[in-house]
Every structure is written in structure tokens, then in C-alpha cells.
Amino acid sequence: MTERAETQGVRLQKVMADAGVGSRRHCEELIGEGRVTVNGKKVFRFGERVDPQSDVIHVDGRRVETRAEMRYYLINKPRGVVSTMADERGRKSLADYVEVPERLFHVGRLDTDTEGLILLTNDGELAHRLMHPSYGVAKTYLAEIHGPIPRDLGRTLKRGVELEDGMAKADRFRIFDQVGRRVLVEITLHEGRKHIVRRLLKEVGFPVQQLARVEFGPIKLGLLRPGNMRALTVKEIGELYKAVGL
Ligand code: URA
Q1: pTM for the full model?
Q2: What is the CATH number of the domain that holds 200?
Q3: Which residues form the pocket of ligand 1, taking CB atoms under 6 Å from any ligand atom?
């Protein structure tokens, strides 16, 4: 930023506006209020020129993705669909639901029987960190089980349960809804071993009837219907970066 001639690069407020932060006017206000940094340095001047491909811009400490080719989506994978971009056995895969031309990869997997939130991106570094156990990104699931359940089930799960490949424990647990013996529980874990939620609940005597992932780190599925996808907002992308220290 500092060594660039006055006429090189693109004006900061235009780069921010193009990245979806808001109107140029709004971006100028953010700059004027001292809420914007470029490569870690606070910028107050509207005319500052930056390179959207290499300069790193933060607003209120959240990174703004300015590289034009980067794409970030979430999809609500329907039950019965495999979590890959193609399936050699001809089963339905994520590719059947992706409506954009870019090559994307999925951030982790869900069981074919599980529905819910999968992130799709072409940002390899972010995807790698989101999947890596050392960053411990939390994932939240809704699981349907048959009640009644003991009062201390949450405590048991949070204390940890021994599975064949080691301990597993919930970070959070609560009853989300209950109709007769059908109990919907919300459970959050910060790990991604295969079938982990199903194995954990089965081990404590409550095999899962239905499973859906509703949150991945700071990203929430919300009311997106199975089979639909949407682009992440600038704010969501910034929060994902923050979750993995980027
Ligand atoms: N845990 C499971 O058991 N299945 C999933 O698909 C995801 C987490």
C-alpha cells in the first residue's frame, strides 16, 4: 500500500464497495471513523489506493474478502445426498444442487443420511483451516431421539463419553423441542470424527432417528430449505476468517 504510486491500485472505498461492504458513501464513513485497516494499519484517507488481490482489508477487525475470484456459499444438503461433488455410483451428490459455474469444494462432509449445512468455497486456505482439528471449529446439530431422557444427560455428554476411538464430549447440549416421546436435542461439538453425533448419542442409549447440522462455526443455516444454496454475506465471510485466525 505505502510504496504504490498514487495512480496505481484501486481506491479503497471502491474496493470495499465492490466486495459488498456497502455503498461507497458508507465505506467512506467507515474509513473516516477509523474502522478500516489495510495490512494491519488504520487508514483515514478516502483516496488510499490498494491492490484487491494482495492487500488485506479489515473493517471492525473482520476481514473483507476482496479477491474477485473467491467464492463462499452454504448449501442445505438434503437427506439421501452424498457429500461429494460427484459420485461414481450415480447417486445424487452436491453437484446436483450447485447452481454456480465455479469449481467449488465442500468443507467437510455429512453422512448421506444427515441433512444440513455444508460450506462450499474455492478458498483453499480457509477450507483447510475450517476442517483442521487444531482450530476446533464448533458445529451444532439437531438430533431427534426417543425420550424420555434423564435429567443429567447433558451433564454426561459434557463430561465426555468413551467411544472406541477415544473420548468425545459435547460443548453444549439442550432440549430444543419435545412432542410426546419424540425429543429434539441441540448438541454442539468442536470436532469432526466420522458419525460422531450418532455414535455419541447411541453410546448413552439414545440412537439418533434424524440428524441435521444447523451451524458451522459462526455460520447459521437459518431458514434455508434442503436443496437450496446461498452466498455468504461479507460479514459471515469475515467471521469465518476470524474463527480460524486469518
Ligand atoms: N455426526 C454424525 O454422526 N453424522 C454427521 O453427518 C455429522 C456429525
Answers
A1: 0.88
A2: 3.30.2350.10
A3: 110-111, 114, 195-198, 211
